[in-house]
Write a structure and sequence with these properties.
It is a single chain. The chain has 669 residues and is of the alpha+beta class. Helices cover 17% and strands 41% of the residues. The chain has an eight-stranded mixed β-sheet with strand order 1-3-6-5-4-7-8-2.
Length: 669
């Protein structure tokens, strides 16, 4: 094509509506052109001068100092008016993502000139088969890229709870903030050119995001806190979405937002990666191991009363939340393509920085713990053994239980298209106790260099799987289990009510024996504090002990996450010991949401929120919080001074999201 060297352009029409629909970017709250790589887009150039033969031009797009030449073709459609030319422009499927300037470069003989046409943002493209993030299933693309709200699972393995989360990746400023997170990374500050050139690779981009969402190394988005008071910030339990957090960080000149815990880090990470076009979901692992030395063993120590002693840095979280993102692994090979684990919660350093992943779920399942990135840490989180010891003194301890099935239970994510829970444990490991699972575990031990020395070899893997309880007093051989037991909740535990439990013990051999039982209840956050203790003795063939923890005993000391650990340490005169534990999460009363009338786009609607107080006392200083993508620009907070039994409040919002689908996220504090 040819244009005169003195080209004059009246204006450029970016065909915003047409391109956004074709590129699945219509939901972004921005007037800027937002496009996906590897896919054509159309612009119309209105020329003030006529095109002449003998000259030609090229479209050049550049982000930072990284220019790329775009392939362009004149459209065959008839110009809408004289002087207008329609062009179809193609970007490479492996182009760097980010904000670009588009220039028209004109060549006439040996003279070159360029004219700035405007700016656009280029994203990853899950709809493009040649893009590394390509996802073939349309329903999955809608869920993992376009869905702006979701469910994060929390609680306990036997009491899984749903918590709504507003991702809001299309809300105003969120895409700009996501790009700013990349620019605030250590990698970018150390070498902007190299960092920018690597932004075509989802493996690189996702790892940078996992490091920058937490604040530990580079004044990232969220500062973590797991105990103590939250007076200088927001209690992590009070967040119900990412938008408020990201805007607070951005508008506060990149000051880390206080405070977050694992589900907050995962929710924010999901928002950022979906905003950039990488298919991402939130994963919850119940009984998640934090294995600091990666030896696949979590050692828990208790004293003779059953109280937890903090003698090791290892720990087990009743649940831990991370992310999975979908892309191919050119660095590892096609076998490891698919879902990749990312964890922005700052737990351990990886290559000197608090970051984790991406670790291929295929690598984790197959025990390939030597592969990048951090696959050994994630493997331990879902596979480590849980070993319990009674600590008598520095010279004497007793191994009473080794549980090979406790860690990595009910690994969960939200279903595609519904709020149901989907169990994805099979993506991480073979069935517990199977021959394949044992082979993978041994393979991982070998790759990690964990040798057959010390406490791990005194009982073989096969024997540990069938053991229930035994005594190993350092030099004595292990005894066969003689008693078993479990703690049973007599009723669903609700905050404000007494907790009723039964300890059921069973004699596994024929002789009668006397059992001394020490009962204790501890309030749990990340540390544990003794609340109640009792001791009884009984003779059993089969025996049940019923007891209760009254509301008056826990009401003044209950932590914000409402967790109580109940333990029963059972000892026989013959020397056998059994530790029975049960984590309890007290249920909050439900909020009932009723829409009062039809919901119509651009029309107001009244919403009634009802809360029933379960306590026999007046609740004061209550706060109702609400947020929703396309409904509220900021989180809504309504304070109530007094609430006795029923709170009813009609709320008014204008429904203006394009889909007309009514979505709300509500919670109380």
């Amino acid at each position: 094509l040819a244009v005169p060297l003195t080209l004059k352009i009246a204006n450029v029409n970016w065909q915003s509506k047409l391109n956004k629909a074709a590129h699945h970017t219509s939901d972004y709250s921005s007037t800027e052109a937002i496009l996906r790589r590897g896919q054509a887009f159309t612009i119309t150039v209105n020329l003030q001068t006529m095109v002449q033969s003998g000259d030609n031009f090229t479209f050049i797009a550049s982000t930072g100092n990284f220019p790329i030449a775009l392939i362009s073709h004149p459209s065959h459609s008839k110009p809408s008016e004289p002087g207008c030319m329609n062009f179809t422009i193609f970007s490479p499927a492996d182009a760097v993502i980010g904000r670009y300037k588009l220039k028209l470069q004109t060549v006439s003989g040996n003279k070159v000139s360029s004219t700035l046409l405007g700016q656009f943002v280029l994203l990853f493209n899950p709809w493009c088969p040649n893009d590394d993030v390509y996802m073939a299933n349309e329903k999955e693309r809608w869920e993992y890229v376009l869905n702006d709200s979701g469910i994060i699972f929390q609680g306990l393995e036997k009491h899984i709870q749903q918590e709504a989360w507003n991702y809001g990746q299309f809300e105003e400023d969120i895409l700009d903030i996501s790009l700013a997170i990349l620019d605030r990374s250590l990698n970018h500050r150390q070498d902007p050119a190299v960092d920018t050139s690597n932004r075509n690779n989802p493996t690189y981009v996702s790892r940078v995001i996992s490091a920058t969402v937490n604040s530990n190394d580079e004044k990232g988005v969220v500062e973590g806190k797991w105990n103590g008071k939250y007076c200088s910030g927001t209690n992590p339990l009070q967040w119900s979405g990412s938008v408020t957090i990201l805007r607070k960080w951005y508008r506060g000149r990149y000051k880390p937002v206080r405070y977050g815990q694992c589900w907050v880090f995962a929710g924010v990470t999901c928002t950022v990666l979906r905003s950039l076009g990488i298919p991402t979901r939130v994963i919850t692992n119940f009984n998640s191991a934090h294995d600091t030395n990666i030896n696949l063993s979590i050692d828990k120590y208790i004293d003779t009363s059953g109280k937890t002693l903090h003698l090791t840095e290892d720990s087990v979280w009743n649940f831990h939340v991370w992310n999975e993102s979908w892309f191919i692994r050119r660095d590892l090979g096609s076998f490891y393509d698919g879902w990749q684990v990312l964890d922005a919660t700052p737990q351990e350093r990886s290559k000197g920085i608090y970051q984790c992943g991406p670790a291929s779920t295929r690598a984790i399942k197959e025990g390939d713990v030597n592969l990048d990135y951090d696959s050994s840490f994630v493997f331990a989180a879902v596979n480590a053994d849980y070993v319990t010891w009674i600590h008598y003194s520095k010279k004497r301890k007793e191994r009473i239980y080794s549980d090979t099935r406790k860690i990595g239970k009910f690994i969960s994510t939200k279903a595609v298209g519904t709020n149901a829970r989907v169990d994805v444990t099979a993506n991480y490991k073979y069935p517990e106790g199977s021959l394949k699972e044992r082979r993978v575990y041994k393979k991982a031990l070998k790759l990690l260099g964990v040798r057959g020395t010390g406490k791990r070899t005194k009982i073989t893997r096969r024997r540990r799987r069938s053991s229930v309880a035994w005594r190993q007093n350092m030099t004595q051989p292990a005894q066969k289990p003689s008693i078993s037991g479990k703690l049973i909740l007599d009723a669903s535990p609700v905050i404000g009510q007494d907790i009723l439990l039964t300890l059921a013990l069973r004699n596994l051999i024929s002789d009668f024996k006397t059992i001394k039982v020490k009962l204790s209840a501890s309030l749990v956050l990340r540390d544990r504090k003794k609340k109640r203790r009792n001791s009884v003795s009984l003779s059993i063939p089969v025996k049940e002990i019923s007891f209760k923890i009254s509301y008056s005993q826990y009401k003044n000391s209950l932590m914000d996450d409402r967790k109580i650990l109940v333990t029963a340490l059972c000892e026989t005169k013959q020397g056998a010991s059994l530790l029975v534990e049960k984590d309890i999460v007290l249920q909050d009363p439900l909020l009932t949401i009723k829409v009062l009338g039809p919901t119509v786009v651009h029309k107001a609607v009244n919403v009634q929120v009802t809360f029933t107080n379960p306590l026999s006392e007046v609740v004061t200083d209550s706060v109702l919080r609400a947020e929703g993508s396309g409904l509220l620009k900021e989180q809504l907070r309504i304070k109530y001074v007094n609430a006795i039994w029923l709170i009813t409040r009609s709320l008014w919002w204008e429904i203006w999201n394009k889909s007309g689908f009514f979505k709300k996220i509500l919670s109380t504090s």
